[in-house]
Design goal:
Elements lengths: L10 E9 L4 E8 L5 E7 L6 E3 L5 E3 L2 H11 L7 H17 L4 E3 H15 L1 H11 L5 H12 L1
Parallel strand pairs: 4-6
Antiparallel strand pairs: 1-2, 2-3, 4-5
Helix pairs in contact: 1-2, 1-4, 2-3, 3-4, 4-5
Length: about 150
């Protein structure tokens, strides 16, 4: 860290505190050259996830959209809201852990279907019918056969 007084490029950290309100870290430093003390603040820089939609447009990942899709699929089912929110948390964490900053919407849809399949098969079929855009009863039956096997 460059000293604001003499410009020397090295300092030592004397004290570190977390600043909860701003989600940052406050560090008290001392210059190794002139012994002057100064304070720095560090904030985690997050790079937003970008979703590449089917029509190749891009938009920022919106966890509320994912939650809305899951809520719609789970309508009138015995799936607690906390479980639905946990699914969205897991999906978002998987996307962040992938280290990819641009994710195709199809990958998000597949993750949602994977989570729904574990929780409620009816909700899974509801989501799949919209997501995979079943054209007729035969494609719907094919998905049901996969689920049964």
């Amino acid at each position: 860290m460059k000293c604001p007084f003499c410009g020397f490029l090295d300092s030592k950290v004397i004290e570190t505190r977390t600043v909860e309100e701003t989600n940052s870290i406050r560090r008290r430093r001392e210059c190794l050259e002139c012994q002057q003390r100064f304070t720095t603040y560090e904030k985690l820089e997050s790079i937003p996830l970008v979703v590449i939609k089917k029509d190749k447009t891009r938009e920022t990942f919106d966890r509320e959209k994912v939650l809305a899709g899951i809520i719609t699929a789970c309508e009138k089912r015995q799936v607690p809201t906390a479980k639905m929110e946990a699914m969205v948390d897991e999906i978002e964490q998987q996307l962040l852990n992938s280290l990819e900053r641009e994710i195709p919407s199809s990958a998000i849809g597949e993750l949602v279907m994977e989570k729904l399949k574990e929780v409620d098969e009816v909700a899974y079929v509801r989501f799949a019918s919209v997501y995979r855009q079943f054209k007729d009863i035969n494609t719907f039956m094919e998905e049901l056969k996969k689920l049964l096997s």
